[in-house]
Amino acid sequence: MAEVEVRRARIEDAEAIARVHLRTWQSAYRHVFPPDQLDALPLEPRIAGWQRGLQDDDAICFVAGDPILGFVFAERSADEPELGEVDAIYVDPSAWGTGVGRSLLASAEEDLCARGFDEAVLWVLEDNPRARRCYEAAGWTLDGGRKTWPQMGVDAPVVRYRKRF
Asked: 119 to each of 10, 76, 85, how far by Cα in Å?
């Protein structure tokens, strides 16, 4: 595995982040959500969303690679403000299995810890074994939290992982 550079995201990264986000959804979630709907997802709303998200001074966003191969977005948990939360971590399918996800997750963990959080949570699709293996290898453990994530007419089950720093 070659070392990949991880850096804090900048506003001008919004389009590249949105492209990785969209490609990853379209590849990783085909068995969960309707493929025709995944294929029809527009890029522009994601770009606009990332432009807004990257302007949030309280959030953490790192990108990996040049060109960008993945990103992680974390912040204070909305549900439990004493916790940090990894809200999104996506790696382009071309870089799956290369360690990019682990590097991004480690960067988010370090930043959350530096911001004073001693524990964080993340939610993941229950039927996302690749991501779950990554989290478990990085020391995250299931804590029993469960809910559904309604998307594209599917109530997809999600599970919560937790890690102490």
From this structure: 26, 11, 9
89-148 per-position pLDDT tens digit: 999 999 999 999 999 999 999 999 999 999 999 999 999 999 999 999 999 999 999 999
Domains contained in the chain, CATH given: 6-118 (3.40.630.30)
User: Is pLDDT at 6 greater than 60 in this prediction?
Assistant: yes
**Six-digit token string for 52:** 């807004």
The partner residues of 141 in beta bridges, in order of sequence, read 162
Lateral strand order in the sheet of 84-91: 6-8, 60-64, 70-76, 84-91, 119-125, 154-164, 141-151
What pLDDT is attached to residue 2?
57
Alpha-carbon distance of 135 to 104, in angstroms, equals 11
Q: Cα 146–164–60 angle (5° rounding)? A: 85
